[in-house]
Amino acid sequence: MKFEDYPFHHAMWKAWKEQQKNFIYTIEGEEKKIYDEYLYTETEFRRFPKHVQEANKALKRYVAGFTFFKHSGLQTVSENHISDEELNILERFGKVFEQSYTRFLDLQKAEAQAKEAQIEAALERVRSRSMAMHKSEELKEVIKITYHQLSQLKIKIDHAGFVVDYKPKGDWHFWIADEQDIPAEISHPWFDSVWARQFDEAKQNGKYFFATQLNFEEKNKFYNELLSFVPGLPEASKDFYLSCPGLAASTVLMDNVALYIENFSGIPYTAEENNILLRFGKVFQQTYTRFMDLQKAEFQAREAQIEAALERTRTQSMIMQHSSELDETLKVFHEQVLLLGIKSAFSFLWLPDEKNERHIFWAAWREDKNGTTVFNSKAVNYPLDRNEPATVQCFADWKSNEPVHSYHVQPAAVDNYFATWKELLDGVEKLNPEYFRDGLYYVEAFMKYGCFGVMTITDLNEAEKILLNRFAIEFERTYTRFLDLKKAESQARQAKIETALEKVRARALAMQQPEELKEVATVLRHEMGLLGVEGLETCSIYIHDETINRTECWYALKDIRGEENKLVSDHFPLNLQDTWVGREMDKFYRSGAKKVSILMQGANRKEWINYCEERSIPLRGYYGTLIPDRTYHLYKFSHGAIGAASAGDISAESWDLLQRAASVFSLAYSRFKDLTQARFDLQRLKAEKQRAETALSELQTTQKQLIQSEKWQALANSPPASPMKFRTR
After folding, report:
1. What is the pLDDT of residues 564-613, one digit of tens each?
2. In this predicted model, what pLDDT tens digit does every residue of 31-62 receive, in sequence order?
3. How far apart are CA 230 and CA 233, in angstroms?
């Protein structure tokens, strides 16, 4: 009972203060009516059976006899007055009760001390485990310790948890413990519930505690939504949560963290139990400070680790001297991804080339061979099909504002997924669909040139996706450097080509005799060798004269019969109709095509080589008895073509070289024609001069003969001279 403002209470309080051993107080009349109304409506006496209450109200009076001591008092109530003898007996009983109550207080104090010691020991265990944390993930051990220590304090508890990183209406982050197989760490989006509203309201109003009680239906509504964010939870655990009769929870809020306990019997926690929870909450505030310090240190260490990994990729990028080294750089990217804990089966690049309607897929993976770890990579170049669903999706994601996209390949689709990558991953034993029967994920981080991605068995968490995006940004820088190198290499290559062609052009302009055209072919073959186009083992110049249906060949080839690999060159005429290869060349001359590739094999190849050997001594015995198949690549120029023989197809660059060489040979051919015409004109002039000189000589001889004849004739017609006169003269 509370101390209320009634005369009886004041008299009783005064008598106890004065430690009266015999005290009597009588309640009757109007005072009794008022006190009965108070007693049986506002105090625990209202629990008395109704017939007892009515019997007491029917009494004329209450005569209360007291004997008081230090810690207690003993009271009797009757309708009649109490005698002195009865008061003496009451006093004697009071003395005995005082001893009993003193013993009770001692026991109560001892129990409180033991309970306090037990609570302090429990708090110290939580505190010690908190201070022993070396990693922030050990918070799951702290909540387990908290759960077990509260249980040992005889508090009914089926579930306990910490709430961290709270933001109003933001995602919830829990570290939890109970006897079910629920994960220790859970995050899920905010959703409306009684508990969530209470939590938000308490935070807004600065409260440090609130209690929650849910009936069966309310509890199941809450847990059905909550458990939808816990993938993989066993059905037995779900059944437990949903079959319990209700839920009672108490939540303590500190500055940066909250601690809550729950039982599924629905019985609210007592004030004493809540006070214990408050004390655990204060300890856990220290725990959370330790947790935050560890988390900060781990973040700094992780960031240093990430920066070191990214720096290795930057270093590899900066030491690239040639664009071909991009392959090694991608391997380094994959290696660093693995070192940072992303379990990527392989890393890949998607690099679309919209201008040329192509796209490159480039993959890198790790293999263990003979106890040694090696990193391999491969690239394939495909036509860009904008109607293919996966490509359409890639472009849509690339153009979106989301930097990272994650895709789940269901178990039934694994075989099709690997069939798509077959050309890229064929032969890699560890990258086999048999190892991914439970499905897989591929995560793509997009950047300026496409995307950098990984293929994993499980999806990446948010931190890993952010990390993947950082790698993609770093690769964007790497690929920019690659393009710069490629551009510089292209410019250097073009300069080398121009220099080589200039030498050919200069040699062509320096010709003094038509026969020197074979020297031009030699220079061209030599310069192609210096340019690294060794696949072009021969260089030949064909000049076709349609008026006489005759072709002349100037060639230069590397002599494989000697170690020096000197160039062999010669010039010979041929009739294109004499061989199958020649006839194919003639078809090309008469066609409108600019270039052609003629596959020479078997009998046709032997026929051609034998034909050429008959007309050019340096070619005899060049191949010996084994004449390999070759492909002849011809590019047309005015009145002829330039040709190169190789073991197969040649690159686009080699075709470009042939085209540019052909333009140079147009100049060479003009020079050749000029020299040929000059020789012809010189020979004609010499012949005409000779004819003129011969005619002049003949004319002079005839003239002399005519003069002599005239002289003789004149002598014959004149009279004989006098001998005397003759002598006088």
Report:
1. 667 778 888 999 999 999 999 999 988 989 999 999 999 999 999 899 98
2. 989 988 998 888 888 888 999 989 989 999 99
3. 6
Element housing 558 (H / E): strand 550-558
Element (H, E) at 46: none
CA 646 to chain centre: 42
Quickly tell me which residue has 């340019």 as its tokens. Answer: 531
**Residues with Cβ within 8 Å of residue 95, at least 6 apart in sequence:** 69
DSSP designation for 427: T
Instruction: Using DSSP, state whether 644 is helix, strand or coil.
Output: strand
Helices (H), 68-155: 84-131, 139-152
CB atoms within 10 A of CB 88: 13
Among the residues of 247-388, which ranges form H helices? 271-318, 326-339
Return the structure tokens found at 407.
């895709």
The 3-state DSSP class for residue 635 equals strand
- pLDDT above 50 (res 344): yes
CA distance 631 to 650: 9
Q: Are strands 73-78 and 247-253 parallel, antiparallel or unpaired?
A: unpaired
249 C-beta neighbours (distance < 10 Å), count = 23
Counting every residue written for the chain, the total comes to 729
- Using CA atoms, how far residue 285 sits from 279, 461, 638, in Å, is 10, 27, 91
Read off the amino acid at residue 522: T
Asked if 149 and 279 touch (Cβ cutoff 8 Å), the reply is no
The Cα 235–Cα 250 span in angstroms is 27
Q: What average pLDDT score do residues 526-551 get?
A: 73
Give the dihedral sign, CA 358/364/365/369. Answer: positive
> Are the CB atoms for 366 and 354 separated by under 8 Å?
no
With tokens 């509260």, the residue in question is 150
Please report how many Cα atoms fall inside a 13 Å half-sphere around the Cα of residue 54, on the Cβ side.
3
pTM score of the predicted model: 0.52
Only one residue has tokens 């051990």, namely 141
Which residues lie below 8 Å from residue 551, measured CB to CB, with a gap of 6+?
Answer: 542, 543, 544, 545, 573, 574, 575, 576, 582, 585
Q: Contacts for 500-508 with beta carbons within 8 Å, 24 or more apart?
A: 500/527, 500/528, 500/530, 500/531, 501/527, 501/660, 501/661, 501/664, 503/527, 504/661, 504/664, 504/668, 505/664, 505/667, 505/668, 508/664, 508/665, 508/667, 508/668, 508/671
Determine the Cα–Cα distance for residues 376 and 347; give it in Å rounded to an integer: 11
CB-based contacts of 173: which residues, under 8 Å, 6+ apart?
163, 164, 165, 166, 185, 186, 187
End-to-end CA distance of the chain: give it in Å, rounded. 200
Say how far apart CA 461 and CA 341 lie, in whole Å: 12
| pLDDT, average across residues 429-435 | 86
Q: Which tokens in the block code for residue 406?
A: 């994650």
pLDDT band of residue 533 (cuts 50, 70, 90) is low
CA–CA separation, 162 and 146 (whole Å): 10
The values of phi and psi at residue 558, to 5°, are -80, 130
User: Phi and psi of 125, rounded to 5°?
Assistant: -65, -40
